[in-house]
Target: RNA polymerase sigma-70 factor
Amino acid sequence: MAEDAFTEHRPLLFTIAYEMLGSATDAEDVLQESYLRWSAVDPASVGHPRAYLVRVVTRQALNHLRALKARREEYVGPWLPEPILTAPEVSDDAILAESVSMAMMLVLETLNPTERAVFVLHDVFGYPHGEIAASIGKTEVSVRQIAHRARRHVHARRRRFEPDSATTRGIVQRFLRAAATGEIQALMDLLAPDVVQISDGGGKVVAARRPITGRNDVARFVLRVIRAGTATTRAEYTTYNGMPAARFLTGGELDWMVAFEIHDGRITGLYGMRNPDKLHRADTVHPLDRGGAEPWKP
Model:
C-alpha cells in the first residue's frame, strides 16, 4: 500500500525536509504535499519507493525554500530554526546530530536553495551527485560544482560541535544552578571568552534584537532574563536538535527554551527560542533518520 511505504520512510523524508527548511511546521507541510503526490501514483510502477519519495520531497522542499527566503528577509530580529525535541539516540550519529544543530542550521541558511539541497543530500545523506542531479533538474557536472562551492562555504563557517552527552549535560546543569542563584562569576567560568547568545522572538515577544557576544555581556544578559521570570518558572533539562538544552515552563506552559553549544568544557553558544509560533509543537519528539543512500531507479 502507498501509505505503508510512505510511513516506513517518513523519518528520513522529514529529516531531509527539516534540514532543507529549518522549520518542522514547513517540513510537515512538504510531507503532506508529497504524500498526496505519492498517493496518486501506482506503487507497483515504482521499483524503489524510497528513492522516488526522496526525489518528490526534495523538489517540494526546494519550492518551499525559495518562497521562505523572501519571508525571512523581513523577519524581526535574529532568526533561529524551529527547535525540534530529539530522542537521545540522535546524538549517537555524529553527522546527523551536527546537521540538525542550531549552529549548522544557521550556516545552511546562508546558502542559496539549490546549494542547500545539494549539500544536505550529498554531505549529510550520502546521495551521489548523479542522483541529486535527477532530483533537482541539474546536470551532474553542475551538481558537482554546486557541491564543491557549498561545502567550502559551510566548512569556512561551521563551528566545532559536541552532541548531547553526560559531560555536556553536567555543564548545562551547573550553568542553570549558577543562573538560578545569581552567581555571575560561576556563570562566566562556564562561558567561552567569545561566547555568542542569540534570541529569537520573531517580533512577537520581548527578546534581544541582536546577538550578544562575550562572556561578561552574556552572563549579565542571562541573569537579567532569569530575574525577569516568575516564582512559577522552572527549568527542565532536555535535548533539542541533538544539543543539550533547557526548557523553561511558567505555570506549566512552555515559555522559552535554550540550546547550548559546548566545546572543550565551555559554552560557546546559547540559542534561545521565545517565538511562540516556533514553540507550539516543541513537545513533539520527531523521529530522525539519515538512512543510507539508495540508487535511483524509476
Summary: The first helix runs from residue 2 to 21. The beta strands are 191-200, 212-213, 233-240, 243-250, 253-263, 266-273. The chain has two domains: 2-157, 166-279. The chain is about 50% helix and 15% strand.
